[in-house]
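Field reference: sequence -> structure
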Amino acid sequence: MKQNVEKLYQISHKPSRKIIGLMSGTSLDGLDVALCEVRGDGLETSIKLIEFETVTFTTDFKNEVKEIFSKKNIDLEKLTLLNVWIAQEHAGIINLLLEKWKINAAEVDLIASHGQTIYHAPKSLHQQQKFSNATLQIGDGDHIAVATGIITLSDFRQKHIAAGGEGAPLAVYGDYLIFGKQGEDRILLNIGGIANFTYLPGNMDSAEIFSTDTGAGNTMMDALTQQHFKGKYFDENAIIALQGKINDALLVTLKQHDFFTKPFPKTTGPELFNLTYLQQAKKLSSTQNISIEDTMATLNKFSADTIVDAIQKTTDAHKTYKLFSSGGGIHNPLLMKDLKEALPNFIFDTTSALQINPDAKEAVLFAILANECVCGNGEYLQNGIKGIPVVSMGKISFPN
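Structure field:
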């Protein structure tokens, strides 16, 4: 153990560190693997993306995870087995990519593994008085560390909850460190399964930072695609949605959940926004018989409208903002068109303009969290910001 601690100490004092960030979202499309070079810590952090690849999950992998994903009642043995198996699969992907990139594992200082979210249960969703916020990500860090030979940080969301947060969104920490800019008010919008954004004030005052989930991003559109189009996992280029028409009655009903009236910041997941939610909304609006295309068009607009509503409620209509988008939703032309039309005082770009591949952004942000855990002190953020506890996140697993 002493040898491992000494190695960690040495890593923390290096002028730069090579860190692999891993992200597997609720869309289950694949594992994002970002090899980063990170210098400094806190507000002195700088990051360079050296390599990036999204490794598509096999159908078998997706089916195994779907057996327990976002379900209240599952096979406990399967959950236990998958905790190890997912870690082994992720470690195998890392080893293959390092070989492909011609990089020796000894050259990599740390792995930052988000894990696979199985269930997200903020108190606002489960509403059980004696229980607090909770979330569960599996893919055990010890197995990744042993299988790769690299010190691994994992399970980042637990400390956030322990310190009073809801376990999400965590992007705010990395967003502030590497994307804030003096004199420019910025919005960092990530459209994954769930959409979230971070507001970064141009005065760089950390007390004014704001971050929240907005509601469904791609999750309901992806689920509808998978239900009705065999072999397809998402509405590529919004082809399905563009063939339909928005159903106003369904759209209004989809927006009526009390999640949208709760104060910011807040968090949610596919535990709420799923096909059951859609079916209930169709029943309430008497739209059970509308076409799949009309349903998809309406879901697309639902995601756009709820993102716009959250941003408008928390920004000044008389100010100009730069909005940098990331995540799978940026590849949906209809969704992005609606966002741009509804937010005329926002200048749109992607995080490519900030030298970060928009598909890699979340994996990069977990690399930053790992860097802060090992090298930082958290002094870059003020205490007392609602939903943003000043904590070091990530459990450390040694390879031996």
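Note: Residues 38 and 47 are 5 Å apart (CA to CA).
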